[in-house]
Specification:
Elements (H helix, E strand, L loop, with lengths): L11 H26 L14 H88 L1
């Protein structure tokens, strides 16, 4: 069984680098979000003198930041999915055209094969008739 090695496939290294960069960016965004926007959840609540209105504002900011992060990640994923779908559609068209070509080739081969069989039968019958005629001349 032959395994495909990533270093032998054209374009794989570039795609892998882009994927790793995207993953690193998402991880960094999540880390920043957790450090900056969710860290307040670990701190003591409004009982220590923090204004509840400030907590609501920071909560809204955290939600907006999460929404922004999700939209960036989802946007990248959606564009990659759309690109993949378009590539698969073009591949489907190519495979469909190749399937039709193969069907035409098979039909052509079948016709050629039938013609060859008819020609072989005619030649065999002619040779048989010539052999009978030659045997008749020898015996006669």
């Amino acid at each position: 069984m032959n395994a495909i090695r990533p270093d032998k496939v054209e374009g794989t290294e570039t795609e892998l680098s882009a994927d790793l960069a995207a993953v690193s960016e998402v991880e960094a965004g999540i880390r920043d979000f957790v450090r900056n926007d969710i860290a307040y959840l670990r701190r003591p609540g409004p009982a220590n003198g923090t204004d509840p209105a400030l907590v609501d504002v920071s909560t809204d900011a955290a939600v907006n930041n999460v929404n922004s992060l999700i939209q960036r990640v989802a946007g990248t994923s959606l564009s990659e999915i759309e690109h993949l779908i378009s590539e698969l559609e073009s591949l489907r068209d190519v495979l469909h055209a190749e399937g039709q070509r193969v069907q035409r080739e098979i039909a052509s081969y079948a016709q050629l094969s039938q013609a060859a069989m008819k020609s072989t039968r005619i030649i065999a019958e002619s040779v048989t008739q010539w052999k009978r005629a030659a045997d008749g001349l020898r015996n006669g």
